[in-house]
C-alpha cells in the first residue's frame, strides 16, 4: 500500500489527521469509534473545489440567464439578467455572503420548471464543458486533489463521507462519484423542491421554484445533517463562516472529533483571501480546530498542475 | 451459506424475487445492473412492520397527548387530547387516509419544541417499552421477519436499501439499525423541520413545528427519494395507495425493476384488510407488479411466533 496522504506535505496538519484517524479506528484505542459513528462531513465550495472568482454553480446560472434573455429580451430589465449578459460577475458577488439566500433563490429559480432529468443533463454537460476563466480547464477539474485523497483515505478507514454543500445538492451530485468517489445520496445540501406529476407513462419529477428549508449554510448545515444523516459527524471540514456551525457541531460529539478549516493563502497556485472567513478563523484559534494552509500543507492543489 | 429467503414459502412470489435478484446481479446477464444503481426503497408502516390497529407512531403521539393533558387539563377542549385521554383510537383513524397531512401535523407538533436528543430518547424508550395491544409485545418486535430477511438478502447482493416512510423519519431511525440493519441515513420520509440554536456549549438542534415538504406519501415519495437519494430505485415495496407513485416510479427505471405489493390477507397471524389499498391493488394487476400474500408467502410473520 502507498503511503497515505502523499499529496500532503510533511507538516503538523498531515500528522494531526493521521493521528486522529489512527486513534478512532484502532481497536482497543481509548478513542476508538465504531464504524457506524464514523461520519465525516465536508463543505464543498472552497473546501473541496475552487470557489473563485465565483461559485461554479454561479457560472452555470449565468449561462442559463443568458439563454433565457436571448429567448426573451424583455427579461433584461431585471438586473440579474443584464449582469449575466454583460458578464458582470461583481453584481452576483455583491449578493453574498450577506444575501446568500437571495443568490441561491436566483440560482435555483433559473433552473426551475424543467424535469429533474433535463436539469441533470444540463448540469453534467456544464461541469464537463464549462471552462474556468483562470485555469482554462473544465470546472470538473477544479477539485483540490489533497482533499480528494483525504476523502478516499477516510473511506478506506471505515468512514462514511458526506458533502454538506450550501450550493445545489443535485448540481454537485452529478459529478460527486466521478470527482470524489462519493455516491449521490451522500451529497446533502441546499436544494430546490421537487414535484411528482403523473403522466401516461408514469410519475415524472419536476423542479419547483423555492428551496427545501433550511438553506444548507450556517445554522442550516447541522439541521441538514440531521435531516439527511441523523448522526453528528466526528470529522467536519470547511473554509468559511458558513461552516462554523457545522464545525462546532461536530466538536460537541461525545467521541473524539476533528475539525478542519482550509485557509486560502496560496495566491500563486489558487487564490489568497480571508474575506467571509473572519469569524470561523477566530473560532478555530479559540477552539483548537486544525487549520489547513493550502500553501504549506498541500503538496499539489489541482490534478492538472 | 443457508438457503436464501428461508422465511418465505416455496411460492411464485419467492421465486420471482430470487429470479430478479439473480438477473440484475449476475455479471454477463442481459439484465445486469451495476451496484451503484441497485437502490431499493420500502415503505415502512404496513410493509415492514404492523400498522394495525393504528400506526405505531400514533400510539407514541397518544402517550404524549396524555402527558401534555395531564400537565395542562385545559388542553382537553381540543378533540385530539380528549380522544387520547379517552383511548378513542377511532378518532385518529378517522383522520386518515383522507386527512393524513392533518394526522401527521398532529404527530409532529406533539413532539416539537424539544431538542432532537430529547425526542430520540423518548422515541427509543417508547419503541422498546410500549406494548402492542393485541400481541402484548414491545412495538419493536412488530417487524415482519420475511421482509427483514429480504432486506438482508438484498444488501448481501450489493443493493443499498432505504426505508421511505410516510411516518416520522427520525422516529424510525431510532430502531432501523437494530430491527432491519439499515443505517439511520438510509431512512427517509416525512419529517419535522430542525432549527440550530447556538448555546454556550455550541450548536444544539431543536424540533420546530411544521413539516419538511413534501410529506413522504403518495406523490411525495418519489420527491423524497430524489431529495435523499438522487437515484430511481430498481426495486420498490409497499402496501397501500400512498405507495403507488413510488412503485410506478421504480418501474420507469430504464433497467429491469421489481415492484412488490404486500397484501394483508392473514387475519389469523396479522390483520386482513384491503381498505386504503384499492387503487394500488388495481394498478398492480394492470402493471404486473408482484403481489405478496402474507397468508400464502410468509412462512412466519413475527419473530415471537
How would you sum up this structure, described in words?
The structure is a homodimer of 305-residue chains. Chain A is α/β, with parallel strands linked by helices and 305 residues long. The first copy, chain A, is 40% helix and 17% strand. Chain A is built from twelve helices and nine strands. In chain A, the strands form two sheets. In chain A, strands 1, 2, 3, 6, 7, 8 and 9 form a seven-stranded mixed sheet that branches. The first copy, chain A, is globular. The model of chain A has no long low-confidence stretch (mean pLDDT 94).
Radius of gyration of chain A: 20 Å
**Helical amount among residues of chain A, as a percent range?**
40-55%
Distance between termini of chain A? 24 Å
Number of helices of chain A: 12
Biggest sheet overview of chain A: 7 strands, mixed
Quantity of strands of chain A, as a count: 9
Mean pLDDT of chain A: 94
Low-confidence stretches of chain A: none
**Oligomer state of the chains in this structure:** homodimer
Write down the secondary-structure element order of chain A.
Answer: HEHHHHHHEHEEEHEHEEHEH
* Structural class based on helices, strands and sheet pairing of chain A: alpha/beta
